[in-house]
Amino acid sequence: MTGHPAHHHQEAGGLPLEVLLPAVFVVLLAAGYVLLAGRARRRNAQAGWSRWRTGWFLAGCVLLAAGLLPPVAPWVHGDFRGHMLQHLLIGMYAPLGLVLGAPVTLLLRNLPAEEARRLTGLVQSRPLHVLANPVTALLLSVGTLGLLYFTPLYNAMSANTGLHWLLHAHFLLAGCLFAYVIAGPDPAPARPGVPVRLVVLGVAIAAHAVISQLMYGGFGISIHAPVDQVQGGAQIMYYGGDVAELLLAVALVATWRPLPASRRAPRTTRRPEARPAVP
Q1: What is the pLDDT of residues 124-162, one digit of tens each?
Q2: Which helix (H) or strand (E) holds 53?
Q3: Which of 213, 159, 121, 112 is nearest to 7 (CA)?
Q4: Which pLDDT band, with edges at 50, 70 and 90, does 278 fall under?
Q5: Is a pLDDT exceeding 80 seen at residue 218?
Q6: Could you tell me which of 144, 124, 136, 145 has the C-alpha nearest to residue 181?
Q7: So what's the pLDDT on residue 243?
Q8: Distance of CA 65 to CAs 23, 121, 226, Å?
Q9: DSSP string, 192-255
Q10: How many CA within 13 A on the CB side of residue 82?
């Protein structure tokens, strides 16, 4: 087996584009959020905006930068373990922070009423209802891993810079979708109850475990990398994925609130039956 092919680096002002572009993207993402958060506080000082939400989003930006920038990014080109660490950062850890930052709610707080209604209508639309189904999110985030690692797709995407960045985009978007469906605080089409989402999360945990075990044992995989790198990558997926999914489970359980008394089904009180008189 061979390692990843060499990548040619374009430079802009002495800085490789593969470093400059993601750095600019992450900085703009974080700065945009902070500006909107400040504007939301000024527009409605009473409602304000949670600093916890801001902290979560910025933590997600930091994790995204860690996955896209050195020292992790250069490690990816020559070591499958680097790829797997990058996958976890971009596709599992960063999305959790970004989603817990409730960016859609923040955007709604800043939009004019008419545009906010349009965005709300989009969130409640039928296509998003299908996309935000937990099963759809599960297939897009976890199901595609089988296609990636057990077919020649991974090798083809690793050898092409454009496809490699497309893979990054898929990891990030699919990870955000899954975190949003399972535990996102933003408005969404009618979500299943917490027990159903916990079951879906359990399936994701089991699927990650099976894929990583098959990868470690070399069963059916199609990855052009030394065996020790593949096994190391499998271990990173197994243990790192467990931690990320545990954090997602904690976020989900934290949203579990009992129904208020006014919304609970009325409880009927049975009157005791009259006992017959004792002669």
Answers
A1: 888 888 998 999 999 999 989 989 999 999 999 888 888
A2: helix 51-68
A3: 159
A4: very low
A5: yes
A6: 136
A7: 96
A8: 7, 32, 27
A9: PPHHHHHHHHHHHHHHHHHHHHHHHHTSS----S-HHHHHHHHHIIIIIHHHHHHHHHHHHHHT
A10: 18
What mean pLDDT do residues 247-264 have?
Answer: 71
The DSSP symbol for 31 reads: H
Assign 1 a pLDDT band (cuts: 50, 70, 90): very low
**Predicted model pTM:** 0.86
Cα 28 to Cα 22: distance, rounded to the nearest angstrom? 10
The residue among 48, 54, 56 whose CA lies nearest residue 251 is 56
C-alpha dihedral, 207 to 196 to 102 to 110, nearest 10° = 130
CB proximity list for 205: less than 8 A, separation 6 or greater: 241, 242, 245
**Helical (H) or strand (E) element with 173:** helix 161-183
Q: What is the pLDDT of residues 109-125, one digit of tens each?
A: 999 999 999 999 988 88
Contact 86, 157 (CB under 8 A): no
User: Rounded CA gap, 169 and 180, in Å?
Assistant: 16
Tell me 278's DSSP state: P
Phi, psi of 110 (to 5 degrees): -100, -15
Measuring CA to CA, which residue among 204, 188, 211 is closest to residue 244?
A: 204
Amino acid at residue number 179: A
